[in-house]
Amino acid sequence: KNYLKEVQEFNPKNPEELENFRIKFLGKKGILNDLFQKFKEVPNDTKKEFGQQINHLKQLVNDKINSLKDHYNFSKQPTSDRLDLTRPGYPFNLGTRHPISVVKNKIISIFKKIGFSVADGPEIEDDWHNFTALNMSEHHPARDMQDTFFIDKNPDLVLRTHTSSVQIRYMEKNEPPIRILSPGRVYRNEDISSRSHCMFHQIEGLYVDTNVSFADLKQTLQFFTSELFGKSEIRMRPSYFPFTEPSAEVDVYWGLETETDYRITKGTGWLEILGCGMIDPNVLKNVNINPEKYSGFAFGMGIERIVMLMYQIGDIRMFTENDIRMLKQFSTEY
Ligand code: PHE
Questions:
Q1: 148, 241, 303, 306: which to mutate for ligand 1, most atoms within 8 A of CB?
Q2: Looking at ligand 1, which residue's alpha carbon is closest to its atom 10?
Q3: Distance, CA of 151 to CA of 56 (rounded, Å)
Q4: pLDDT tens-digit map of 313-329
Q5: Which segments of the chain does DSSP mark as H helices, in order?
Q6: Cα 19 to chain centroid, rounded
Q7: What is the pLDDT of residues 23-57, one digit of tens each?
Q8: CB within 6 Å of ligand 1 — which residues?
Q9: All residues at 6 or more sequence positions from 327 whose CB lies less than 8 Å from its CB, including other chains
Q10: Which of 33, 83, 173, 321 is 20 to 30 Å from 182 by CA-CA measure?
Q11: Mean per-residue pLDDT over the chain, rounded
Q12: Which of 12-16, 67-71, 102-106, 155-159 comes out lowest in average pLDDT?
C-alpha cells in the first residue's frame, strides 16, 4: 500500500532521480524482486490477492517510468530540461556589403570630411535635367539616340545617362554655396561585355561658391585620390564635356613607383578615373545662378571602374551576377 502511494507521488527533478527510482523498484535487489521473493512464503489463501497487488505495483512502476522517460527523451518535445549551455552555437552568417556600396561609402566619407553632403535624384529623368540644362542642345552629338534608353518611346523621358542631372536638380532648388556629392545608378544603351554594362554607378561632385578656381578642383581631387588610394599621383588631361569649360579627365598613376595601398595591377601606368571641369556659365544661367558672381566645379566618376581597379575585378558583369563566392570576400562593415 505504501509503495503504491510512493510510486503515484513520485516526481523526479532530473533524469538521475528517475534512474534511482527505477533501480529501487526494478533492480536486481529492488523492491519488486524482494516482494516476489516474499510471495513464495505467503499462505495460500492470501496468495491470489498478494500476487495481484504485486502485479499492480509492477504495472504502476513501469507506467510511471515510461511516461517520465518520454518527458526526458530529447527527441521528443523540447522542454527547459533540454537546455544545454555547453553545446556549440549555431553558425550565424553575416551578410557582406556589395563592393559597389563599400567603395561608394568610402568615397562619401572622404568628401564628407571636406564639407560635401549627399544629394539624390531620380533615375527616370526628363530631357531638361539630363541634357538640355547641361548645355546639350537638341542636336548635340552626346545625345546620340543609341546611348540613351527612352521610356515608352517618349522623347522627353529617359533613364538618366549620368548623375550630372542631379547637379541641375540641386542648383534649381538651392542657393550657393553648394557642396554636394550624388551617387547613383545610370543607364546607357550599350552592349554588355566584360568592360561595359547598360547599367552602372556614378558619383557626381558639385561645388559652387564665390571665387571657386581650377586650383580648388585639382586640390580637391588630389585630396580625394590620396585618401582613397593612399599616396598617389594624378594628372589632368584636357578634355571636353558640354557642361564644363574648361574640362579635364583625371588619371591616377597605377604603377610600380607609387606607394598606393592598392598597388595591384603592376606597371599599368596612368589610368583614367574621372571627368571634371569648371561649370559652364551657360549651365549656371539655366538654373538661375549668376555666373558673374559665382563659379564652380563638377566631377563625375564611374564607381565600377574604381572598384575593379582596387580589387582586381576583371569583369564588370560580376557586380550583378550575385555569385556568393565573390560577394562574401567583401566587408561586413562600411
Ligand atoms: N557626366 C560625365 C560623364 O558621364 C562626367 C562628368 C561629370 C564630367 C561632371 C564633368 C563634370 O561622362
A1: 241
A2: 276
A3: 86
A4: 889 999 999 999 999 88
A5: 2-9, 15-26, 31-39, 44-72, 99-112, 127-130, 164-173, 214-229, 281-286, 303-311, 318-321, 324-327
A6: 53
A7: 999 999 999 999 989 888 888 888 888 889 999 99
A8: 162, 164, 204, 241, 244, 275-277, 298-300
A9: 96, 98, 99
A10: 321
A11: 88
A12: 67-71
User: In which element (H, E) is residue 153 found?
Assistant: none
For residue 19, give the C-alpha cell. 534512474
pTM, entire model = 0.71
At residue 227, the 3 state secondary structure works out as helix
CA 73–ligand 1 middle distance (angstroms): 69
Cis omega (within 30 of 0) for bond into 177: yes
**Confidence grade of residue 298 (pLDDT, cut at 50, 70, 90):** very high
Q: Whose CA is nearest to atom 12 of ligand 1?
A: 275
ipTM score assigned to the predicted complex = 0.98
Q: Judge contact between 214 and 278, C-beta under 8 A.
A: yes
Q: How far is the CA of 197 from the centre of ligand 1 (A)?
A: 17
Q: Which three cell numbers stand for residue 37?
A: 521473493
Find the 195 Cα to ligand 1 centroid distance in Å: 18
Burial (CB count <10 Å: 0-12, 13-18, 19+), residue 269: exposed
**d(CA 276, ligand 1 centre) in Å:** 6
299 CA to middle of ligand 1, Å?
A: 6
Cell reading at 86: 555547453
